[in-house]
Design brief:
Layout (H helix, E strand, L loop, with lengths): L22 H29 L3 E6 L8 H4 L5 H4 L4 E2 L1 E3 L5 E3 L2 E6 L5 E6 L13 H13 L12 E7 L2 E6 L6 H4 L6 E2 L8 H6 L7 E7 L3 E6 L13 E6 L3 H10 L4 E3 L5 H6 L3 E5 L4 E6 L9 H10 L2 H8 L5 E2 L23 H10 L7 E7 L4 H11 L3 E7 L4 H5 L5 E6 L5 H9 L16 H9 L8 H12 L5 E3 L1 E2 L2 E5 L25
Helix pairs in contact: 1-7, 9-11, 14-15, 14-16, 15-16
Family: Belongs to the bacterial solute-binding protein 5 family.
Organism: Streptomyces fagopyri
Keywords: Signal, Transport
Amino acid sequence: MPAQLTTHRRRLVHPSSRRTGGPRAAALAAALVALLAPALSACGGDTAAAGGGATLKWTSSYFPAHWDPVVGGSGAQFRELALTYASLTRTDETGKAVPDLARSWEYNEKGDEITFHLRPGLKFSDGQPVDAAAVKAAIERAQKQKNSALFGDLTSIRTVDAEGLDAVLHLTQVDYQIPQLLGERVLQIASPLAAKNPAKLDQNPVGAGPFTVTQLIPGTKAVLRKNPDYWDAKNIHIDNVELTSAPDASTVVSGLRTGVYNFADLDPSQASAAKKAGLDVFVQPGFNASNLSLNINKAPFDNAKVVDAVRYAINRQEFVDKLTFGYGEVTDQPFPKGYVAYDPKSEADHPYDPAKSKKLLTEAGYKAGAIKLDLVIPADDPQAEIVQSQLAKVGITVTIKVDKNWATPFFAKNLKFSLYGTTGRDSAAQTLTAHFGPNGPLNLSSPYEPAGFEAAIAKVRQTPLDAPDYAKVLQAATRAGLKSGALVFTYSQPNLIAKSTSISDLPKNPAHIDWTGVTISSAN
């Protein structure tokens, strides 16, 4: 039954978190794969035999650091968490919200209240009912838990009333983005009984998704089996899942070729090798975009001419050429070209122009070499070296500093200069707010926001997604956000996946990995 998205007239992880290493690291990782291959293969065989069916052996560069979805659901690892947690909505291949735990929903006449109608008879893997009370508990926990990564996404929700299977969300404003927002990424729903102890939930996830966790080794491995009580279990044809943390990127292809794994996210540098090995390499559309984050509350970025100088000093095409191996494209926005929120009118507002960059620095009162910056990042990242080289060409000296605890000063807005990469939100309005809003977690210059942005994003929320002028209104908000001096976007690339030919094609839901209808042949 299709969801009714009408009025009562009736959808952060830093890219450099991916594992990298030099020749020594690669050699050690390759040796480790060879050593573990028999053990892992045996484990997969035992699991398949015990479960009597097909086993997905997925190695992921984004193995969840946290299995509490309130803590870990905002970054790229939401895809792995979606194995065990379901949400009110999910997205289809067009990126639009469709039913998941909620079978339908409707807004009131004004647009400041939305009621989600849950499917009857559902339960979490601990036997607790999936009802409106569970939805209310999930939202309130995401808003209030101290280590929640989701509270900034839920500011439009004032209160929730639980009425049996009907969850009534009272909003702080008219907001037609809610069904789009409350999908797999922002509100994966855990059993409220299990969530009473979030630390325990983090080690023993309890959801209502397509699989249940039977074994979890934090940071290393998770074993799951099909959940017979999942609402769409009839369309889940995978019986067992072995999820492991991926080794060095250079060893993933050999692991896939030898059968240690049959599914993996893939670094673009390995795509050619994967194809030559006879693996399926496919592009999963996404909302990924990388940027330089500037803090305009700190010198020298408190000078607008310095900010513009950095903008004109960045050669976006070099990022694409050196990092994406033909799979990426330049972007000066938090969206890839072709996405509904991408604003063509803002394209190339600050093209690569090192001469103009130098001129602006002179006008700002800085001689060549006078500006010295620390670029703080969580791990070695080739992006940082490109930035360092490009800014050196205009007379700005950059020192790269790796701080594994980078996140603390970044989200506290204490850093001056850093890199970030977004995987976006299913709600484009929320992506914009996260980057440009005064409380946006990805806005290193908080509480600063560009003039006119607040009004533009409010208009987006007030516009139903099926309104004829929705795209125009949304692109205007993107245009308003891009007036911000806090972010300089560089390039975008899709998600690359490599898999064994024994695994059938996956639905191409943008940014998501959906196992509905996927089969694994006996060749596995």
